[in-house]
Design a protein that fits this description.
7 helices, mainly alpha, binds heme C, disordered N terminus
């Protein structure tokens, strides 16, 4: 929203300084506002898909094993900066001891298919969900 506010203020000054170019300034202003809005919508969608992955992959979701009891506390590790996206992704793609490979299960989640995400986009979405 800040971006829209600033572009609105900038747009206002452009309009008052150059009245004869008003149409052009307004057009640019609308464009900037649209880009800012669609960026926000995409981020919100990514979080939603990430939550669906976390809740539904493998049927019972990642939380069947994680963020309870003794298995890695994904959300806490990510928030503490102790689990980066690269190793998160590596574990999902290759598995790790008791952790099964998860990419097929993630790609089978309905909203992931609907969003048309690639494997890396789906992994990034659940990572983002866990880091919020
Ligand atoms: C069947 C139980 C189970 C399910 C379901 C499961 N995990 Fe795991 N996961 C584990 C176990 C056990 C480990 C610990 C492996 C080890 O380090 O020995 C682990 C480790 C991980 C790690 C590595 C953590 C680190 O500190 O390196 C990540 C990342 C991970 N899981 C993500 C996920 C995600 C995301 C999902 C859901 C798509 C998921 N897991 C579903 C059991 C599970």
């Amino acid at each position: 929203m800040l971006a829209i506010y600033f572009s609105a203020v900038a747009g206002y000054f452009l309009i008052t300084i150059e009245r004869n170019k008003m149409k052009i300034s307004l057009g640019a202003l609308a464009g900037v506002a649209l880009i800012a809005l669609s960026g926000q919508a995409l981020a919100a969608d990514e979080l939603k898909v990430g939550k669906k992955i976390y809740d539904r992959a493998f049927g019972r979701g990642c939380g069947a094993c994680h963020d309870i009891a003794s298995n890695p506390q994904l959300a806490s590790l990510i928030k503490a900066g102790e689990l980066d996206l690269a190793s998160f992704s590596n574990t999902l793609k290759n598995g790790k001891n008791g952790m099964p490979k998860a990419v097929a299960a993630i790609m089978a989640v309905g909203p992931v298919k609907k969003a048309g995400y690639s494997e890396d986009e789906a992994i990034a979405a659940v990572y983002k969900y866990l880091s919020k």
